[in-house]
Please model this.
Amino acid sequence: MNESSDNQSRVVVAGICISTILFAIIISGFFNTQIPKQPSGNGGNPIRIAVTLPVFADFATRLHPDQIKVKSLVPAGVEPHEYEPTPDDRITLENSDLILSVGSGFDGWLENLVTAIPAGRRPQILNLGGALGLEPDADPHFWLDNERVIEALEIIAERLIDMSPSAAQDIGMNQELLQNELIMLDNDFDTTLRTCKQKSYISAHTAFHLLTNPYNIRDIPLSGYDPEQEPSSAQIASVIRTATELNTRVIFIEPLIRPKIVDALIRDLGTIVYTLDPLENTDDLTNFSYEQVMRDNLTTLAKALDCTISL
Model:
C-alpha cells in the first residue's frame, strides 16, 4: 500500500472516531436534559390530578368527568394524619399535571415529595387552604364549612378551566349544578341544626367545630387538630368538667379513630357514642360522594343532638 492510500485510511478512521464521539455527546446531552412537563387537558388528553383528600377527587371528577383522571395519594381506609408516603407516590406526582392539597399542616408530608421532583417535571400545586386565605396554623377542615367549601369548588373549577380552556363551558355548567347541590345542603343544615335541643358535644379531636359553630353548638374536643395527639390528664379533667357543667351527653368519634379515653367517658359521664365523618378519608374511594356523607352526618347530628331534621 502506497503512502497516499495509507494517509487516506487514517483520515477516514479519524473521521469515524470524531463522528462517534460527537454522536455520543449529543445522545448523552439529550438523555440528561430535563424536558419540561407538558400539561394535559388540551387535544383530548385527560388532566391527571393527584389529591390528598377524597372531597377534591369528587369535585374534580364531577366538574370535568370526561377529561379528568384522579389518583388519591392516601389509600382507602388510612388515617391521613399518620400517612407515610411511598416511592410510588413520587411516581404518581411526576406523572400528574395538578396536585390538589389541603395545606395548613394537614398534608405536610407532601412538601418533601414535591421538592424531590426536578423542577422541570413538577406538576402544578393548588393548595386550597392557602387559596382560601387560611393561616398555616388554622383549622384545616374547611370542607366542613358549608360556605367555604363552595368557595373551594369555585377555585378548583377556575384552575381546571385554565388548564383546559376548550372545556370552559362544560366545567361552568357542572360547577353550577354542583354549587346548587351544596347550597341546598347548606340550607338543610341551617334549618335542622338551629332546632337542636342539645347545644354541646364532646369530640375525639378538633374536627367538627367549623360544621357546628355557626349554629351555636359547642364542640368540646379531647385534643387539637391532630387526632394522634394524646390528651393530657389536665385536658381530660377539663373536658369532664365542661361536659358536666353543660350537661353534655354526646361524644362523636370518627370512622377511623376511637381514642382509648372514650370508654372512660362513657363510664364517668354516661355519654352516648355516635360516629361522625370528618371526610378525611373513606373505605371506598371509587364511590365516595361528598354530598351523601354530609347528609349522613346531618342525620347523625339530628339524632344525637335532638334536632328536628329537615330534608
Remarks:
- Residues 253 and 275 are 5 Å apart (CA to CA).
- Confidence is low (pLDDT under 50) at residues 3-36.
- The longest helix spans residues 3-32.
